[in-house]
Amino acid sequence: MKVIAKILIFPRQKPALLLFCLLLTISLSSFGQFQPTPVTRSNNHITVGGKNYYQHEVIKGQTLYGITKAYEVSEEEIKKLNPELSTRSVYPGMVLRIPDSKSIPKTATTVKIPEEIAVKNDQPCKSKPFPHENDNFRLAILLPLNIEQNDSLNYTDSLKADHFRFYEFLEGVYLAIDSMQRQGLNMTVEIFDTERSTETINKIISAGRLNETDLIIGPVFPNEVEIVSAFSKSKHIPMVSPLSTFDVVKENPFAFQVRNKLPRRIELVTDYLGSKYNQNIILIGRYAERKSPEFIRFQANLASQVREHDPAKKATIKTAYFSESSRSFITQDSAGSNFERHLSASGPNYIILASENEVFITEVVNEVHKEAFARDIHIFGLNQWVFTDLDLSNLYDCNLEIYSDFEDEHPFIDYTDPGVLQFCSKYKENWNIEPSKYSFQGFDITYYFTKAMFQFGRNLTATVPCWQEYIHDRSMLTPMKFQSFGNSNGFNNQAFSVVRYQKDELIRKKVN
After folding, report:
1. Which tens digits make up the pLDDT trace of 237-275?
2. What CATH architecture applies to the domain 2-21+130-259+420-461+483-495?
3. Closest to 385 in 3D by CA, of 363, 351, 362, 416
């Protein structure tokens, strides 16, 4: 059992530093085989403040050097317009603003203000926050760092992804604690290496190392989470499950579940859609999947949520199926019909695509895009990865919104946000690498809960309804809003991210 106690400084520990160097060596050794992807100028233009710009979405293999040559501008000009490049290199999916000195000036555009996702919460707030500067809190972090195994690596070894991601998460934790300490929080932090072993977890508990803890973050794997949850319940110590979708909140009123299982995530999405859309709703499914239990269940849940949020109880959903073989839309009363006949000419049309099939998504978006200039089209998709290879201009023209989840390979992070840029700068200053999604999540979760403790004290579970009202720090990656659905159960995260392709300015924005 390895314990790192009372964190005051935050250098990268030897195992992670060694393994980072190994990864860097591997990357450098393969660099000679890299061939950059050719860059062609984008057809997407935007005018801001009377100046014209290209919107270029980076694809895999493109380099900043290649982009500067294609657009005939300097790296300095691009970096000035895209501050994110001061802390990281270009990456697939990144949208760059590039000056266009050759085009005729256009009318300036405006930016839509991102909307907040409304989440039900009927519990009243009965507490007011104040800085608990005179309290000394104790935080325990339980992660499978496998220190003994990693400490014995030599230069020929490579780091397992399962190990490295937890070091990245921990580095985000360090920066969150440092940030809260600067605000006046007094906290003793102990980090326990669980070694991905239930035996180690039991030893930590039986030795009494967690008895005086005010908050536990972790562990990660279900069999470990189950043991710590039982301990948390018996000792009335709040615990946060940061990465696992294992149901930790059932019959444990002191547990917080950050990530939900897929069925619950779909419930949250359908509730959001039902609250937002109340007219001209068209659910498009894949004809080959029309009888699948998943589609039928989603269709029923969506219809229920739409009716629930409609005061007149008259809102209805049209359902159409698209056949890739015939390239046509099929409804209950017609076959091979034109898509245009399903659309409204007088109001917005809200189209929901309920499939993960890439061919289906591509075909439907291309068909819908044909009507985007004559009709007010809004598309909602459930999976970000399906849309990555589509024509970017089509997505903006269709006002696409996508559910974004931590499981995505590249979950959405707004690198124009000053808070994100500051975090990236501090992270790189400490460890000379860019943060991963695990780094962002480690910071978001730790900062959110330590902030709540600093403002409301040790009785966290009693003050949860007040957090949304008094804690206004926006997360970089992991939105959080917790609610309990029973006195004997803990708190589920009711927040999630939706990314909008804003037609007005050709940029992606997080809606939540």
Report:
1. 999 999 888 889 989 999 999 998 877 888 888 888 888
2. 3-Layer(aba) Sandwich (3.40)
3. 362
